[in-house]
Amino acid sequence: MIRSVMVMNTQGKPRLAKFYDFQSVEKQQELIRSVFGVLSSRAENVSNFLDAESIFGPDSRLVYKHYATLYFVLVFDSSENELAMLDLIQVFVETLDKCFKNVCELDIVFNYSKIHTILDEMIFGGQVLETSSTELMKAVEEISKLESASNTISLVPKSVSGWRR
Predict the structure, then answer these.
(1) What global pTM score does this model have?
(2) The pLDDT value given to residue 158
């Protein structure tokens, strides 16, 4: 099971943090700080896989990928494959690139709901749902169409809106 998805910049500011098991806000902030402390102190030529038991408790692994100014991090348990989790980060970044034409930190900050939509199409309740960037894009486009269609629908019929008491 995936326990957490985090995206943070190289200064340690979280740009996206989603926890799939309950953590208080204070605990989430502490975990994000701890993860950043570990990642920022690692050399670039070392493995992207870490034991995260000291941070997240027993049976926890962490995989990360550093792109430009962002760290993409997945925390998971032993039921998940490490290479599959690394590939899932790659799929997430590819999908973001397709949505935002070369994604950057500001895209994540200003398109928070769209980022969560993509993540929710990929992972739900800590379980991986979709690993195809193409299928994720189809789902996101369909959701966008539904949202724009619902924005044009008036909930009050015109015959009633002009009615007065």
Answers:
(1) 0.84
(2) 53
